What we know:
Number of helices: 19
Structural class: alpha/beta
CATH architecture of the largest domain: 3-Layer(aba) Sandwich
Mean pLDDT: 93
Shape: elongated
Helix content: 25-40%
CATH superfamily of the largest domain: Methylglyoxal synthase-like domain
Low-confidence stretches: none
Number of domains: 3
Largest sheet: 11 strands, mixed
Strand content: 15-25%
CATH class of the largest domain: Alpha Beta
Radius of gyration: 31 Å
Number of strands: 22
Amino acid sequence: MNGGPVEIKRALISVSDKGGLEELAAKLHSRKVEIISSGGTGKFLQERGIPFTPVEKVTGNPEAFGGRMKTLSFQISSALLFRRGHAEDEKQAKELKIQPIDLVVCNLYPFEATAKKSKDWDEIIENIDIGGPTMIRAAAKNYASVAVVTGPAQYGMVIRDLNETGGSIRPETRQKLALEAFRHTAEYDSLIALRMEREWGEEQRTISIAPRTGQPLRYGENPHQKSWVHPDPFQPGLAGAVPLQGKELSYNNLLDADAAWRSCGDIAALGVKGYPAAVSIIKHLSPCGLALGKTPLEALETAWAGDPVSSFGGILCFNAQVGEDVAKWLGTKFVEVVVAPSYTEEAKKVFAAKPNLRILELPPYTGADKSLMVRSISGGWVVQQEDEGVDAEFKPATGRPFPVEKADLARFGVMACKHLKSNAIGIFRATDKGYSMVGAGMGNPNRLVSMKQAVDKAHENGVKDLSDAVLVSDAFFPFPDNIGIAAAAGIRYIVQPGGSVKDKEVIAACNDSDIAMTFTGRRHFRH
């Protein structure tokens, strides 16, 4: 199917990006290749003394409708698509006076660049290319006989083939170019759909992950794995953030920084009166420290105290500007990444003494982008919306009422717990410094193990009296044995979704231990 080398006798050139075009066009002209062109590309060639055939001489029709109609035609498409060496196709081409086109050089209207910078929707729509993708796809489909070039980076490959073969393009080159052509048009169409979803407020269903956009990272989860990051072209965020200082970010750094950014933004969005500063400390995608405080420094101190051992080497996120006091406090601590909306100049000077520390500037996470969460599985991908659920209903389930004064702490606990890996148990406490997570168990197949870990971690962190703490579970308790562990630890307040067939037994166990329990009606698994 690949055929042999294809001699280039006629080429159609229609490009938006003129970079490198003069060298390629001059090479084609020197080999007596007829160049067909139109519009701005034709003007570019004319100004450089490179002769060309106007596309309207081939199509028999003038450019029309403000440039919307130029290359779309039976004549151009037929010249690209008819099968060389196929008796019936060759016969029809001769009857229809169709002359073959052997090379298409085409890159598309700059839709992405226009859609990023322009607020004029009519201008954005006009930068949706129609004729270009048609020519590219036609040439790529017929790669056995036609070469298709979609970007200046490929010009060198084509020139090399022309020089080394005496005017032809090799089959392996055409095959490679055809693959890149279909990647190019697939990405182009996905960007159009993605931008339209954002413009019209539609539920996002489109994901654009193209080879061109991938930026190599230091390595993947482990040093022997390659990895890339693909920024969303229309949604600024962590993927496109450039560190103010520090080593290159790795795959794990980005995942942990994203978890820190989202969890910090979620607890900050609760708007707990008197505690505007939020801090999240992440290790291996799970929070080991979460706190609200009066100032960023107080929130940091409280979050760090939630698990000082695990916080070592962690990823930190703040919802407010980081000042010199925070930078100095971290001076003796080892952390990998700090994320904040901004930093004072004094803070930057302090951080500069730790040149490997990555410092990222990023506005607080609000969930407004409604981005999709994508994970790969064997044979495909699973996609879901982010868990943006905020529990509004706290329904008392036990004889002992859940205190009104602990409502904000309960909300904080639920929001924090949804960022722990399931099965998740979190223990949360309020002090005069703010709200914080003092113990957590997560990622266990058995909820009992998570319950024991959460209690043990709280005790390890010096919180022996848990009678004023709130325990939050990300899902229902399947058995009342969990309540026994909580009661033995002195827990008196529990928040959970409810919905188990054993709810009555769990409620009875709470009543027997004088525990106040409330149901939220919403589960927050995070696998």
